[in-house]
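FW: tagging you since you asked about this chain on Friday. Here's the raw sequence from the shared folder, copied in full. Didn't touch anything.
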Amino acid sequence: MRQNKWNDDEAQKWIAAAGSDPADQALALRVYTSRLIGADPDLVMHGGGNTSVKVKRRDLLGEEIDVLHVKGSGWDLDTLEAPGLPGVRIDPLLRLRALDALSDEDMVNMQRSSLIDSTAPNPSVEALLHAYLPHVFVDHTHATAFLALGNLPDAVSVIREIFGGRVGVVPYIMPGFALAKKAAEVFEADPSVEGLVLLKHGHFTFGASARESYERMIDHTNLVEDYLAGNAAGRRFSSTVHAMRSGREDVAETVLPALRGAIAKIRGDHGGGDPLPVVLDTRAGETIDAFLKRDDLDELSGRGVASPDHVIRTKGRMLILTNDDVAAGADAIARKVEDYTARYRSEFENQNGRIGGGKIMLEPHPCVIWVPGLGIVGAGKDAAAASAIADLAEQTVEVMTLGEASGGFRPIEADDLFDIEYWSLEQAKLKKSSAKPMAGRIVVVTGGAGTIGLATARAFAAEGAAIALVDLNETACAEAAASVGRHCLAIGADLTKPGAAADVVRRIIRRFGGVDVLVSNAGSALQGNLLDLDEAELRQSFELNFFSHLAMARAVGAVLKAQNHGGQMLFNVSKQAVNPGKGFGAYGLPKAATFFLVRQLALELGGDGIRVNGVNADRIRSGLLTDDFISGRAKARGVSEADYMAGNLLKAEVEARHVADAFVALARSERTTAHITTVDGGNIEAALR
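HL: got it, structure written out here
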């Protein structure tokens, strides 16, 4: 049941902040109710839906003009701001209606040329539909309930049963000029309607005020939810998006790395290069588990998508990995991915021939995978894409379930689906798009809450990687992860404990599907002369500064081999491994062992395409080098703190970000292994030979 979240006090705050201009006040209310809509994933998600408001403004010549503010490309309703509602002159859009046809490219060009601000984003592809409806405020959603309703085989009669004559019904037409004209015709046939249902697409409401349009949308959606619940034994949903992680560790460890490896190979083959990994996002819960036990699962997997625009992210067919596939292992999973790919390529060739050719085939791998006993898996080019795909896959499960309970789920068919997936406007975006260098890679950083660890995590995130931070201090780790970004996993763990490293890697697999880069950075510098130190302290230093690195290498190495597309391990070795310092033997000894570990692992793993490298850093403001320590050392040497920190050949302080940059550079050095990069500004005593 959708909640009416309109609040008079909040609305007045938006109006007051907008100033005295009536047009700006209307725009502020448009932003307010758009955000109310966008906050509910069962109304819109991931760029879906759009809203508009019509106002009067004066142009540079002082003449009053009618302006449509409509959601712009690249904006989501839940975070919408006024600049995300570009203003378009309405009169040129209205004159277009006299045309018999209009290409998408000409429509976009006309909309851009009608902007009151040439730097604004492209208006929505449905701007014409908003313009052709006479109401001041217009809302368009892709509510889960309306997707179930609009995809029923007898949707028109059910809509009449629920609403009587309160809404108009628009047949399915691809978004653009033709749909806008048809929707306007349906409205004009009965101007008393409160909204429109676009079959197999979504729902429009409108009104003289932001509140009226919003409340109609909530009311209409609840009427549909009531109807669906009546056909599903009262079953309702509070949200289709749960983001629950699977607890089936055994299945996850078997399926997800193998699935990542198979998809990475397909992506690499498609692009004519090395494997290109994806990030996976796995969802599970009672609803999903029940759905994956259906007898008609195989038939539903090829039925289509809940909303036409979903196909751009999810493709029109889902891949099913059966219990037998899982039991058979990685080779069987790879074969299923290859079979899916071959079918996609064949269907593309047939469809491309139907329209006379000219389309560029998208990556042919599956994007949504149904795995009974595990959950639904979204596969995306990065963590954000995987999350969005998994969200839409959850919504599809809900739409299919409710639709089948109410007469059937019958979405658009193959030809229409191809036309949306290979829409000329989307193809244009494809030609312009470019992925970040580390997109699709999953990077785990131990000691992630420390200065170097956090700088490294941020550096990899900036390159597009999904990040898992591991640190002994769980609270600090969570805070550090939050500062990195939404798609950063925080794991509190004591890596010196037996089994801790393996557990950490299992958690990363459940969240992202695998690992591509290990930055083994955890460590602590114990002080004291070797002959005076308690043996237990020395052994503990080895546990943290050597054995935890070995444990992480073993756990990550198993995943890298299962994925079978290479990967790498990076170790924070420290200059202590080659340039001992007095009183730091308990730190230097395990670091020297870690130095050897880099070379040994490189030797053992090179045949699997796994690269192993390290960084030797010196005199970084982190860990041992606190402000007090630096001050004491500077005084003891009779120099300023700045000169002490810049005590190297370059006479410049080395910062954590420089170490982070070295890790990223090694990660991107595709033909480098068994190498140690020194980041110390120049320290001849610690130079490698």
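FW: DSSP finds 26 helices and 18 strands in the chain.
HL: agreed, and The CA atoms of residues 288 and 375 lie 6 Å apart.
FW: great, closing this out.
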